[in-house]
Amino acid sequence: MVLQEYKHTNEVLTAETDALRGDSSSLGHGRTQEALLSENEDVRREKISAQQALESAQSTSQSHLDNIKSLEQTLFDLGGEIGAGRHVPPGVRVLSLRDNSEQQWVDLRQAVMDRLRSENEALMRRLKELEESGVRVAGMEGSRAEGELGVGEQGKEPEDVVKQKEKRMLRLQRVSFYYLFS
């Protein structure tokens, strides 16, 4: 009895399988196997097309993000230039008066700074020459310091030289400050 049931079930399944393979037989919702395979192929093509579109969109998006970063950096740089008043947009001509008081003040300040720098360099060279020739009292140790100066004077003279140098530096700072902000 069980054997007969198995045979009957086997025949039913064989008939259904044959029906699924046949052209005239219908498969779920009345569609044939070839129609389902064709639909499956169409869905696969659409999936491939959608994946390519997604990759293209991601590439474009990354390109736009890189462009945004570049533009943000340019904006930051130009913000500093504009804030400092140094930015002149392309295609814009800036006219100024021949007797522009602001430009005269800037030129005067620059000339004073250049002169002070050159004086400072000259003083530094002169100081270096004096130090190399041995005139520097603060650093003397040896026969010259002991032979020319008494023991009591030796401690006082370096202090005087230091005070004089500090006085000169203070005067230079005041002069440069005066010229810069006047």
Tally of alpha and pi helices:
5
Q: Tell me the number of structural domains.
A: 2
Category from helices, strands and their pairing: mainly alpha
Strand-and-helix sequence, N→C? HHHHH
Helix content, binned percent: over 70%
Oligomeric nature of the chains:
single chain
Q: Indicate the mean pLDDT.
A: 80
Q: Please outline the major beta sheet.
A: none
Strand content: under 5%
Distance between the termini: 121 Å
Radius of gyration: 47 Å
Give a count of the beta strands, DSSP E runs of length 2 or more. Answer: 0
Globular, elongated, flat, extended or rod-shaped: what is the shape? elongated
Task: Give the secondary structure arrangement, pairings included.
Blueprint lengths: L1 H20 L11 H52 L16 H33 L9 H6 L2 H30 L2
Helix pairs in contact: 3-5
